[in-house]
């Protein structure tokens, strides 16, 4: 047993890691925002009485949930390339992650919408609210509130999974690590450091979602009930 | 269509759930300011009859007119109907993520495009009407069942309905809380609100009903003034109210 850890050699490259972490966070934020929107629209689509629309959404969700993320990333990457479209690795990574997380959030948000009791909707109908008003006031926010913890976990998972986009040379955190370790031959130290940075990013995201929850669910804030 | 000035009229209403005939030719009329109480055993079709008035159930045959709206017409403007009709349910159905005030102003603001200030003023008025003015900023989960039900009544009143429907609104409450809700309904009746209610509170029905409908196996088995509860003419109603003929 002769373990020698040499951190200074990799720590002196901290600006690289910082850039990588920032890019990872950007990927996560973009995919969370767009994926969240897709999730809401997709959940409404799956619940729609329009059979074609509902079927399309189901195919999307099941297609994504039953294939590996890395394969999806390659499909977007090589698919766009074969159409003659040139995008940066970052754009392709953001697009692939958005498509991926959109499917998972569709399913989570659908569960939230379905959990809104029928009586709530009847009460709203009885008050003459329109369908759009009912969706916005009675289904959307309470539905999301019910699944908020699952939803935020999914977004944190997505941030961690974004490490896979290093495979198409998006310059995120893991790609930086791959480069640094091949440059310094200090692989173990590099990945220890990177793992710590991922933990910090996760904590940042969780804190962010906690704060966001207080803003968008005022009842939780005022009654002090945890999400 | 001539409805003799009735606010609610149902004529030969039929309704089946699959092979089960729930309403088998129902007729009734409710005049302005009248209180009609529907009673009957579970499964007799009383809740279905009430829900048909607000088109929460569609009927197979017959005709229902409520506040001039042809409810049985498939092309009915549902939202116009429901602006004229208030409905209160057994399970309150307050929106849990909104305060009492937000629950009350939601429909006036979004349906009637009332200003927030006006709607909030009105929220105070209707809450005073149900004796809950101090609960304006409470969330439903902070209220007792009786208070939630009164808030739900206030929420309906804020839309200034021409007729109120009550679907077993005290069935989930203990006797004490039932009392406070019934008091509110009594006050509404005294104010001249037209009401149709399904209830199991016989004592209350006796006191408040201008008209009682006893439903049995999907038909109006016996109907008349509240006195039919004390002197029923059919053995079924007699048994239901626990009287010997």
Q: CATH H level of chain A: which superfamily?
A: MetI-like
CATH architecture field of chain A: Orthogonal Bundle
**What count of helical segments of chain A does DSSP give?**
10
Residue share in helix of chain A: over 70%
Instruction: Kindly report the CATH topology of chain B.
Output: Rossmann fold
* Oligomer kind: heterodimer
Major protein interface: A-B, 22 and 29 residues
The average pLDDT score of chain B comes to: 94
CATH architecture of chain B: 3-Layer(aba) Sandwich
Question: Biggest β-sheet of chain A, characterized?
Answer: none
CATH class category of chain A: Mainly Alpha
Number of domains of chain A: 1
Distance between the termini of chain B: 40 Å
- CATH homology group of chain B: P-loop containing nucleotide triphosphate hydrolases
Overall average residue pLDDT of chain A: 94
Radius of gyration of chain B: 18 Å
Strand content of chain A: under 5%
- pLDDT < 50 runs, ≥5 residues of chain A: none
Structural class by helix and strand composition of chain B? alpha/beta
Count of DSSP strands of chain A: 0
Percentage of β-strand residues of chain B: 25-35%
Structural account:
The complex is a heterodimer of chains A (227) and B (245). With 227 residues, chain A is mainly α. Chain A has one domain (12-223): MetI-like (MetI-like fold). Chain A has 10 helices and no strands. By secondary structure, chain B is an alpha/beta fold. Helices cover 33% and strands 26% of the residues of chain B. Chain B contains 8 helices and 10 strands. Chain B has a 6-stranded mixed beta sheet, sandwiched between helices. In chain B, a hairpin with a 2-residue loop joins strand 9 and strand 10. In chain B, 49% of the residues are buried. The interface between A and B is medium-sized, with 22 and 29 residues. Chain B: It holds the Pfam family ABC_tran.
